[in-house]
């Protein structure tokens, strides 16, 4: 396998390793397998939702409703279970609830043509509100052990949710880099109009992205409920910002068209080990927030330097053909989605 | 460009290094205290009390490696994560105030299973078997009754009152509300609790829900009770802005420092609370007694010697009212009766 890493991904790996070294010096507990595996329990929830979020941001969209959706799906699951439904059918219906909530976001964005930030800002409030209304302010407790294992169990020593996260990364990576629709996502972020004129079903792809985001958020909501042992309406409050932070730290551009899943996974890992290691090193929480903000800013500043210049030269010299034939070439995945691919080359 | 990147990395790493705490003391008892959040005078006062107790114990030859840390704002998820991280350091005891009674049960159980003495203070977890002792600042029954009594004294026995609480899932606040309802039903049948709003322990939101209440029930509301230190000053501020200072009774639970100006102006005549400095102080003595084995979980008729506070009884069973109906508290150590801060005595306190 030939893995080529982007400049920003190399920066991220450097950052991950160097913060790992520093944190290991600060705390003797940090660099133990038990601690690192335990930390991935927290990474998995954010990491899972960050996968479709990366694709959505590449397509120049955003989904702010994910954390509210986590709470809503978990609440739906908890209420059904409380009313006598067996746990796994309740989980399935909870996941369907979240998927429908995601589909609704996508439908309003793609069909009614309301900007994603407006739609999901509204559903952020609406979904959380419905969850709070359903719960009446109290959490649901006492889930069976088989369900709690989703949040606290292990498979061959690895936390269950970490295994799910890894599976999610593989599926998402195959979709984004190896399928036609996955490559179109970059095109949507670059130039949506061009794709539309090329006869590509942009709306269908966008609808699919937000639906997938809802599905994954619901899954993460189940894992969250299993980890804390309770379904509650204020679950995962503020997670949407951590998720978007990880994606942006991972080098995905909010302007669309650029970004990789490798970057996002590295972003999630860096945020996770910083929070874990700094707590172990007894750094106060407020100071941790300042540090994480500094890391984000420092990383994003370094991205701005090298790649830009290289991309400009790459576009002006080696890629004139697809530009001229944009309309026709766009309908051909082999060619077009070079648009996203070309940024990998320098 | 490479320089710039190197510079950014170096800067970040330097920050990381600079913030590292000093090396941990050898062979000292490790006691970690995790409040709901660190940015409030109330929890700072419990920290002060805890540090007093640590210093006293040190004077008696008990070395303690004490750490006070918590989320910077009320955040259940961050608290769970911090406790889980800190448990990896294998402390002898952790002292927790739970942001969410239910959600913290698994992490508390996990710590207890790892052989760590788990003490809750200020806000308990929902499952008493998840911890060893709860250092109780005053039962819900006592505090809820004291708040309703203040309203009855200042607004009459047929007052209509509302509550501005913290988070809808906050076990403490919900239980005080249940105790208030109980007191009203038993002692003041003509009194009425008309509405409950939630400010989520955030100043801006507490202020806006207080305004909502005042506007909705203009002229038909005699009192507002805010059983959280974040909301009470904001409710007082909202009452003043609506021109109702002195016309509507505002009371609740808060610290003297947060309420001083309102108590002096007369917007709030009485603030009910306990002394959080004593609470943190007692929590350390309870943690220490649990580590040494002087206090044993589940045994009846025990007591703990708590320095300047004297002796406090450790109760295996105590009846109380909570958000989930009547409850027999298990393994509780009571701080004492609630305290009323008024214009006359408030200047004696600084927390």
TrEMBL record, chain A:
Residues passing through the membrane, by range: 12-33, 87-110, 117-141, 147-176, 205-224, 261-279
Keyword vocabulary terms for this entry: Cell inner membrane, Cell membrane, Membrane, Transmembrane, Transmembrane helix, Transport
InterPro entries reported for this sequence: ABC_transp_permease
Protein's membrane topology: Multi-pass membrane protein
Cell location: Cell membrane
Molecular-function GO terms, alphabetical: transmembrane transporter activity
The keyword Transmembrane belongs to this UniProt entry's keyword annotation: yes
Primary location class: membrane
GO cellular component, one term: plasma membrane
Region (Disordered): 308-346
PANTHER family: ABC TRANSPORTER PERMEASE PROTEIN YPHD-RELATED-RELATED, AUTOINDUCER 2 IMPORT SYSTEM PERMEASE PROTEIN LSRD
Protein's UniProt name: Autoinducer 2 import system permease protein LsrD
Source organism: Candidatus Segetimicrobium genomatis
Taxonomic classification: Bacteria, Bacillati, Candidatus Sysuimicrobiota, Candidatus Sysuimicrobiia, Candidatus Sysuimicrobiales
From TrEMBL, chain B:
Protein keywords: Signal
Leader sequence segment: 1-25
Pfam families, per database record: Peripla_BP_4
SUPFAM superfamilies from the UniProt entry: Periplasmic binding protein-like I
Localization in the cell: Cell envelope
One GO cellular component term: outer membrane-bounded periplasmic space
Every Periplasmic binding protein domain range: 31-293
Entry superkingdom: Bacteria
GO function terms (MF aspect): carbohydrate binding
PANTHER family assigned: ABC-TYPE SUGAR TRANSPORT SYSTEM PERIPLASMIC COMPONENT-LIKE PROTEIN, D-XYLOSE-BINDING PERIPLASMIC PROTEIN
Name this protein carries in UniProt: Substrate-binding domain-containing protein
């Amino acid at each position: 396998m030939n893995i080529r890493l982007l400049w920003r991904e190399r920066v991220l790996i450097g950052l991950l390793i160097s913060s790992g070294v520093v944190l290991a010096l600060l705390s003797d507990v940090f660099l133990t397998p038990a601690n690192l595996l335990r930390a991935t329990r927290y990474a998995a929830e954010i990491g899972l939702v960050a996968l479709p979020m990366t694709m959505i941001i590449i397509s120049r969209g955003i989904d702010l409703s994910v954390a509210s959706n986590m709470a809503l799906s978990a609440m739906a699951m908890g209420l059904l279970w409380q009313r006598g439904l067996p746990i796994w059918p309740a989980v399935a219906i909870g996941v369907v609830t979240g998927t429908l909530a995601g589909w609704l976001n996508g439908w309003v964005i793609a069909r009614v043509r309301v900007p994603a930030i407006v739609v999901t800002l509204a559903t952020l409030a609406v979904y959380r509100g419905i969850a709070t209304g359903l719960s009446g302010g109290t959490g649901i407790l006492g889930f069976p052990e088989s369900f709690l294992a989703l949040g606290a169990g292990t498979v061959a020593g690895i936390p269950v949710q970490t295994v799910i996260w890894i599976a999610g990364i593989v599926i998402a990576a195959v979709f984004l880099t190896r399928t036609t629709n996955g490559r179109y996502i970059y095109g949507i972020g670059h130039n949506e109009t061009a794709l539309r004129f090329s006869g590509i079903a942009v709306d269908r792809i966008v609808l699919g992205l937000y639906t997938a985001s809802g599905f994954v958020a619901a899954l993460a909501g189940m894992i969250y409920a299993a980890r804390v042992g309770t379904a509650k309406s204020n679950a995962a409050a503020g997670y949407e910002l951590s998720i978007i932070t990880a994606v942006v730290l991972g080098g995905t551009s909010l302007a669309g068209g650029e970004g990789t899943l490798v970057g996002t996974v590295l972003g999630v890992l860096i945020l996770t080990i910083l929070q874990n290691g700094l707590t172990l090193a007894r750094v106060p929480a407020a100071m941790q927030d300042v540090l994480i903000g500094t890391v984000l800013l420092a990383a994003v500043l370094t991205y701005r330097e090298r790649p830009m210049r290289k991309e400009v030269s790459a576009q002006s010299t080696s890629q004139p053909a697809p530009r001229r034939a944009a309309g026709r070439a766009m309908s051909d995945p082999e060619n077009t989605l070079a648009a996203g691919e070309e940024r990998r080359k320098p | 460009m490479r320089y710039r990147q190197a510079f950014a990395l170096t800067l970040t790493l330097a920050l990381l290094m600079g913030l590292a705490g000093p090396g941990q003391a050898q062979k000292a008892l490790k006691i970690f205290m995790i409040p709901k959040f660190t940015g409030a005078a109330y929890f700072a006062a419990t920290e002060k009390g805890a540090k007093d107790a640590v210093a006293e114990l040190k004077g008696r030859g008990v070395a303690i490696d004490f750490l006070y840390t918590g989320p910077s704002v009320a955040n259940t998820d961050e608290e769970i994560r911090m406790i889980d991280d800190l448990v990896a350091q294998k402390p002898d005891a952790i002292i927790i105030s739970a942001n969410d009674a239910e959600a913290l049960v698994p992490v508390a159980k996990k710590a207890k299973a790892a052989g760590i003495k788990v003490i809750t203070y200020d806000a308990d977890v929902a499952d008493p078997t998840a911890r060893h002792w709860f250092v109780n600042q005053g039962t819900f029954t006592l505090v809820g009754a004291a708040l309703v009594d203040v309203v009855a004294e200042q607004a009459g026995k047929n007052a209509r009152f509302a509550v501005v609480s913290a988070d809808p899932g906050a076990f403490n606040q919900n239980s005080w509300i249940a105790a208030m309802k109980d007191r009203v039903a038993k002692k003041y049948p003509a009194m009425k609790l008309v509405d409950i709003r939630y400010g989520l322990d955030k100043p801006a939101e507490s202020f806006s829900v207080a305004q909502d209440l005042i506007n909705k029930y203009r002229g038909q509301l005699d009192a507002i009770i805010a059983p959280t230190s974040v909301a009470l000053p904001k409710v007082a501020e909202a009452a003043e802005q609506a021109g109702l200072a002195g016309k509507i009774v505002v009371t609740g639970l808060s610290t003297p420092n947060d309420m001083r100006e309102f108590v002096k102006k007369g917007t709030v005549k009485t603030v009910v609370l306990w002394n959080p400095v004593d609470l943190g102080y007692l929590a350390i003595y309870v943690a220490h007694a649990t580590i040494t084995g002087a206090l044993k979980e589940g045994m009846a008729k025990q007591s703990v010697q708590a320095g300047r506070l004297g002796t406090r009884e450790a109760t295996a069973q105590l009846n109380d009212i909570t958000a989930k109906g009547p409850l027999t508290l298990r393994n509780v150590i009571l701080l004492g009766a609630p305290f009323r801060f008024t214009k006359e005595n408030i200047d004696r306190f600084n927390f």
